[in-house]
Specification:
alpha/beta, 38% helix, 534 residues, 19 helices, 23 strands
Length: 534
């Protein structure tokens, strides 16, 4: 049953703050904010540590227990959950019944509530003690925040220290206006919603429930973007985990703000580079979310040179990712070609000097690099698709040789490398690789044989661009993100010069494909694992 609306409850244009309740876990800026409220004539109510901090700063503070007539009990679990507090926040000031209730129970109005919550998210991230984590679930704070936000017609609610300045200015200028109160209320409900999402997610983890009946997501806006994929689409960047290295939380140290497409490509590039062998310097070059060059080598500069050979035309204006700190040689190599974005864990001083000399080059530093884990979400009309991130990595021990000829040691290394790249290429994906470098990539085709042909054709173009006589695919290996349904795709790879193949296997025609590989003299391994990327 819904609750009927109250008349006369739209509130004044400005709320003059005569009484404010301040209860803070993060006390940054608390004293200055309280000083401003006191200077404007407000009485301060407070609790526990916040009250002590304000009193030590010489501010007049009334403890909440003086208002409730009830002591703080149960280690602070119960201190503000009292009608004297919630009545003062929730009362509709111009409603006669509410006025009568306030008079009868001697409840005084509270015009401003400033609260930030127990650090549940931070505690859950660093602690393995369930009791400590549970004790950091704030109960009274969210209740007061929600009460104040609900009654934004008469109460200003502040949940972010970043808002102290403009709220203090509004209070000093005669009151908090209606527009600001509504904005603060929206922010307050978003904060408690995010807080509850973190708590429900933690409890779901504890009960090993990966996909609960109701899944709640929370994210914090990092920036508003100029537009989305196209200029007519509005867009913003949100962070879901500030502790996770990647494009969303990277520090922009050079260049203009990033666009939606820049961030999308930077994410794809960084995830690929971070997924490669961490023991070897790796470079990934991305264009339109697909790799157009990937290589590992003894140095980043060498890796960049090898990666660039794969598709130098597409690499122009692309995004470059590295899996380790950029040095001077790498920076020189990258800036020799027009590049939109560079993303890497770090860059030394010499590299930064070179990168910053390119005013339009956007440079993102992530702090570290590690393969992505967790959940990924895709919106569809009317719903969301949620799945685990494809964090699987095929190792040597996972491979099953199915042909008469076994791969050589070098072929095995290249097969693992090529299959790892496949994971980051839109399906259908075909990747030719040789000596730790991709030499032909076919992406996003509706048929696998077309991807194989396109990859071979791209390699031919790259061969010509490099001025080589022998095709780059000659003596290469080839990886397919899913099984070959027919032998034609494999034969196209053999025709291009590939000598070994890696694929999941599992087709009804596996034996037909194996026979074709044997007849062509190819070595082939099955992974038993598919890497579709739709």
């Amino acid at each position: 049953m819904s609750v009927s609306s109250k008349k006369g409850s739209s509130g004044p244009e400005r709320v003059v703050v005569k009484r404010a309740l301040i209860s803070l876990s993060d006390k940054t800026g608390a004293v200055e904010f309280a000083q401003a409220l006191v200077a404007a004539g407000a009485e301060i109510l407070s609790t526990g540590g916040t009250a002590r901090a304000l009193k030590e700063a010489g501010l007049p503070v009334k403890d909440v227990s003086e208002v409730t007539g009830f002591p703080e009990i149960m280690d602070g679990r119960v201190k503000t959950l009292h009608p004297a507090v919630h009545g003062g926040i929730l009362a509709i000031r111009d409603d006669s019944e509410h006025q009568a209730a306030m008079q009868e129970h001697e409840i005084e109005p509270i015009d401003l509530v400033a609260i930030n919550l127990y650090p549940f998210e931070e505690t859950a991230a660093k602690s393995s003690d369930p009791l400590e984590i549970i004790e950091n679930i704030d109960i009274g704070g969210p209740a007061m925040i929600r009460a104040a936000a609900k009654n934004a017609a008469f109460v200003a609610v502040v949940t972010d220290p970043a808002d102290y300045g403009r709220v203090a200015e509004a209070v000093a200028s005669g009151g908090v206006d209606k527009a600001l109160r509504r904005e603060l209320a929206a922010k307050a409900f978003a904060r408690t919603g995010a807080y509850d999402a973190a708590i429900s997610g933690w409890f779901a983890e504890q009960s090993e429930t990966q996909f609960p009946e109701r899944m709640v997501f929370a994210a914090t806006r990092a920036s508003e973007l100029r537009y989305g994929e196209n200029p007519h689409q509005k867009a913003a960047l949100y962070s879901t985990d500030k502790g996770k290295p990647g494009a969303a939380n990277a520090c922009l140290v050079n260049g203009k703000p990033l666009s939606y497409n820049n961030l999308s490509d930077a994410d794809a590039a960084f995830q690929l580079a971070a997924d490669l062998d961490p023991e070897r310097p790796a470079i990934a070059i991305i264009k339109h979310a697909n790799p157009c060059g990937v290589a590992v080598a003894d140095t980043l500069a060498e890796a960049h040179a090898k990666a660039l050979i794969c598709d130098p035309v597409s690499a122009y204006g692309g995004v470059v990712a590295a899996n380790r700190q950029l040095d001077e040689a790498a920076a020189k190599a990258i800036t020799a070609l027009f590049t939109e974005v560079v993303i890497a864990p770090d860059a030394d001083e010499a590299a930064l000097k070179i990168l910053k000399a390119k005013a339009n080059l956007r440079v993102l530093l992530t702090g570290s690099a590690m393969p992505a884990t967790g959940m990924m979400v895709k919106s569809i009309a009317g719903g969301l698709l949620v799945q685990e991130i494809d964090a699987a990595q095929v190792k040597m021990a996972d491979l099953k040789v199915v042909t008469k000829r076994e791969p050589t040691e070098q072929e095995l290394a290249d097969l693992i490398f090529a299959f790892r790249i496949c994971k980051h290429v839109k399906s259908n994906a075909i990747v030719y690789a040789k000596d730790g470098a991709a030499v032909g990539i076919g992406a996003g085709q509706m048929s696998r044989v077309d991807s194989a042909r396109i990859a071979a054709w791209k390699a031919q173009e790259a061969t010509r661009a490099a001025g080589l006589e022998d095709a780059l695919t000659r003596g290469s290996v080839v990886a397919s993100d899913a099984f070959f349904p027919f032998a034609d795709g494999l034969l196209a790879a053999a025709e291009a010069g590939a000598t070994a193949v890696i694929q999941p296997g599992g087709s009804l025609r596996d034996q037909e494909v194996i026979d074709a590989a044997d007849e062509a003299g190819l070595a082939m391994v099955f992974t038993g694992l598919r890497h579709f990327r739709h």
